[in-house]
Structures are given as C-alpha cells and as structure tokens.
Design a protein that fits this description.
The complex is a heterodimer. Chain A has strands spanning 5-7, 10-13, 19-24, 31-37, 43-50, 53-56, 65-68, 75-79, 88-95, 105-106, 110-114. By secondary structure, chain A is mostly beta strands. In chain B, strands 2, 4, 5, 9, 10 and 11 form a six-stranded mixed beta sheet that branches. In chain B, strands 1-3-8-7-6 form a five-stranded antiparallel beta sheet, with no helix packed on it. The termini of chain B are far apart. Classes of the chains: A mainly beta, B mainly beta. The A-B interface holds A 31, 33, 35, 41-45, 48, 55-56, 58-59, 91, 95, 97-109 and B 6, 30-31, 33, 35, 41-45, 48, 50, 88, 90, 92-94, 96-106.
Chain lengths: 115, 113
C-alpha cells in the first residue's frame, strides 16, 4: 500500500512564475491536508479538502494561493506569481476520516525554492 | 486563542543521556499527537494521547498527557544517534469533523556520539 505521494520533490521557480504542487493521498483516503513549513519552523495548516470540496481554507493566504482536489487525480496546491517568501517545504497529509482523533499520514513534501 | 508552547527549542545531548521535550497549552486539549521529523524528512506520526493522565511507552520513548489535558511530554531514555531529529507536538483545532492539526514549534534534538 503506497504511502502519500507528492511531486515534484524539489521545485525551483523564479519570482513571478507559477508553482504547482501535487499530492496523491494514500489508497482509500479521501481527506487531504496541506501544510507549509518555513525553514527552522513548525508546520502551519493551510487547507483541508475532500474530493471536489474545500472544507477549511482558513490557513491559506488570501491571494495567489489556491487548492483543489478533483474527483479524479491528485490534489493540487497552486501558487501564482511566486515571491521569495513562498520558499518553504509544502507537505500534504491524508487520512481516511476527518475526525480529530484520526492519524494523518504525511507525504515526503515538496521543497519550493524561489529565486 | 488557543496556542501551544513547546520547549526547549534545541537540545544537545551526549549519546546515552536522557532527553525530554514539553508541550504546554493555555487551554484544555481534546487530544495531543507527537510527530518526529528527521533532517530533510517529513513528519512521522509517533503516538496520540487522549485520556487525562495517560502514559504510553514505545521502547525507549515515554509519552505523558497531563491530568488537566493542558500539557504533554515526550521522554527518551538513553538517547541514540538514530533519535536525532525534530519532535513536534500537535493538536486538532476547529470543529470535530475537520481534523486540522496545529503544531508546536518543535524541539530539535542533536545527539553526540
């Protein structure tokens, strides 16, 4: 049973470009969470999605960031017109249920570097 | 609002020494989870504590949840170089059906052989 998959593992973008980060949850999991980790800091919640629905986006910046989890295919975190401050590790996690006591399984992350 | 403080931020120990990290909340938590992140790696779930005063052990690791469910600790006995990494506590926030986690700042453990 493959774990959570993320790609690319490393992404380099120049300021103003777009970044697309993909996440495939574990088999059987329909709940996806995105977290951002700045260097030397903890993880910060960004968004929680179920298939075709955004449930909680309270941690998403108001501009340039969007996320989706289509019926078919991976979840996508999209960052438009990237700036240097977007450089961070972006982790996706999945769980089989949305409950607060359910374990979240993290993917290997995408390390975004903005030049 | 609810927040959790994790201390210390860094800890350097000699191999064989013990290590403890603490997580303190200003309000009562429904449960608390602990994760380990190796350098360059991703968070890996270690354990979840739910009950007041709960104590759980995993080999050399001992996890405690305070009686008031406002604090928790992770204790490692006789550290090894494989214990190196950052240990995070995390708790769920929001309505019961969202499951989003709020992470502490983490404690980074360095073990000198």
């Amino acid at each position: 049973n493959a774990g959570v998959m993320q790609n690319p593992r490393h992404l380099v973008r120049r300021r103003g470009q777009e970044a697309r980060l993909r996440c495939s949850p574990m088999k059987g999991h329909s709940h996806v969470y995105w977290y951002r980790q700045l260097p030397e800091e903890g993880l910060k919640f960004m968004v929680y999605l179920q298939k075709e629905n955004i449930i909680d986006e309270s941690g998403m910046p108001k501009e340039r960031f969007s996320a989706e989890f289509p019926k078919e295919g991976p979840s996508i975190l999209r960052i438009q017109q990237v700036v240097r401050g977007d450089s961070a590790a972006y982790f996706c996690a999945s769980s089989p249920r949305p409950g607060s006591t359910d374990t979240q399984y993290f993917g290997p992350g995408t390390r975004l570097t903005v030049l | 609002g609810q927040q959790v403080m994790q201390i210390p931020q860094y800890q350097h120990v000699q191999e064989g020494e013990d290590f403890t990290t603490y997580c303190n909340s200003s309000t009562t938590l429904s449960n608390i989870q602990w994760y380990k992140q190796r350098p360059g790696g991703h968070p890996v779930f270690l354990i979840q504590l739910v009950k007041s005063g709960e104590v759980k052990k995993q080999k050399r690791l001992t996890f405690q949840f305070g009686e008031a469910k406002k604090n928790s600790s992770l204790h490692i006995t006789a550290t090894q170089t494989t214990d190196v990494g950052t240990y995070f506590c995390a708790y769920p926030r929001g309505s019961s059906n969202t499951g989003k986690l709020i992470f502490g700042q983490g404690t980074t453990l360095q073990v000198k052989p």
